[in-house]
Design brief:
The protein is an alpha/beta fold and about 325 residues long. About 45% of the residues lie in helices and about 10% in strands. It is built from eleven helices and eight strands.
Length: about 325
């Protein structure tokens, strides 16, 4: 990143959104470890630039779908921090009324139409939404976020085929963090160049740096412009890396540390931290200095603490209403 053509307020907004996601998730660690938070939390730490850059390129009325690692997608799409915190605490004030937890986030007001832990499960829902938008002649699009692991699922090919055939307004965002749980993509994908997959269907597809929020924004904007000209779907593979375990703060899936990633690899990616990278850029452009950084952290942490207090004081769903809102009548 060199000198910027964007306004100071836009760049600071990108930075602050990434920081908010990071600090929000860091604040979950203590209650996860103490057992206060019961829902499994797949932290997005290190991948924030993808959600923030892509959502900055969307219009408010566009829709988004997530997956099991969607705190960042939801917040970047304009989701409410208190509602997310409450959801993770299992409280009725949560965005899914405490029924969903970390992996089932939904908030129609924010245009966030759902996240589920079924790998690739939301992709066909996003295709359906895009079809509805086309039928209703709405000038909107749907973005669907998923991981590299999802691209080994059959439903992805169906989604590519159907959306390309019907020229649907959908943006596929693959967050390639090089691993699916503990399996490197080289062991699960015949061709780890994921962006090549949709090209077979005639879908415009590129690979880009997912740790540079400005590049993410620009790549997404370009694709969105194409989609809005009724050119059909587009696909972006963003290369990124999660700085924490697959689930929870470390990889503690079966009660032992199971992260098989090489410590050297982790060190290399730490140097590419999207927030640090943006911070450096903003300082260089004199948009940020150490005292502003400190104030930012304090302001965001205060907001997060208030959300936690709100969640802790919120009621759990009533036992006799547990199935209410779960099934559509
Ligand atoms: C259909 C299905 N198969 C298997 C799983 C178990 N599972 C949970 S997360 C995960 C890995 C997902 O990897 P990826 O899509 O790359 O996302 P990441 O966790 O790396 O963000 C798997 C296999 C699942 N939830 N759903």
């Amino acid at each position: 990143m060199t000198k910027s053509k964007y306004s100071k307020s836009f760049l600071l907004k990108l930075y602050q959104q990434m920081l908010e996601i990071r600090l929000f998730e860091e604040s979950l660690i203590e209650p996860i470890l103490s057992g206060e938070i019961k829902t499994p939390c797949h932290l997005y730490t290190g991948e924030e630039a993808v959600a923030v850059g892509v959502c900055a390129a969307l219009n408010k009325k566009d829709y988004a779908f997530g997956n099991h690692r969607s705190h960042g997608h939801y917040l970047a799409k304009g989701g409410d921090l208190k509602a997310l915190m409450s959801e993770i605490f299992g409280k009725s004030t949560g965005c899914s009324r405490g029924r969903g937890g970390s992996m089932h986030i939904i908030d129609k007001k924010a245009g966030f139409l759902g996240a589920t832990p079924i790998i690739a499960g939301t992709v066909p829902l996003a295709v359906g939404t895009a079809l509805a938008l086309k039928i209703k002649k709405k000038n909107r699009l749907t973005v669907t976020f998923f991981g590299d692991g999802a691209t080994a699922e059959g439903v992805i090919s169906e989604a590519f085929n159907f959306s390309a055939l019907h020229k649907l307004p959908i943006l596929f965002i693959c967050e390639n963090n090089l691993y699916a749980t503990h399996m490197p993509i080289t062991e699960s994908l015949a061709n780890p160049k994921i962006y090549l997959q949709p090209k077979t269907y005639g879908i415009k597809s590129v690979r880009a740096d997912g740790n540079d929020v400005i590049k993410v924004f620009e790549t997404a904007k370009k694709m969105i412009t194409q989609i809005k000209k009724h050119k059909g779907p587009a696909f972006i593979e963003f290369l990124t890396y999660r700085m924490r375990g697959h689930v929870g703060p470390d990889d503690n899936i079966q009660g032992t540390h199971t992260d098989i990633r090489k410590s050297r690899e982790i060190e290399v990616w730490k140097k590419r931290d999207p927030i640090k990278k943006m911070e450096k850029f903003l300082i260089k452009n004199k948009f940020l200095d150490q005292s502003k950084i400190k104030k930012n952290y304090q302001k965001i942490n205060k907001k997060i603490e208030q959300a936690k207090t709100f969640s802790r004081h919120s009621p759990y769903p009533k036992k006799n209403e547990l199935l209410k809102y779960v099934f559509k009548k």
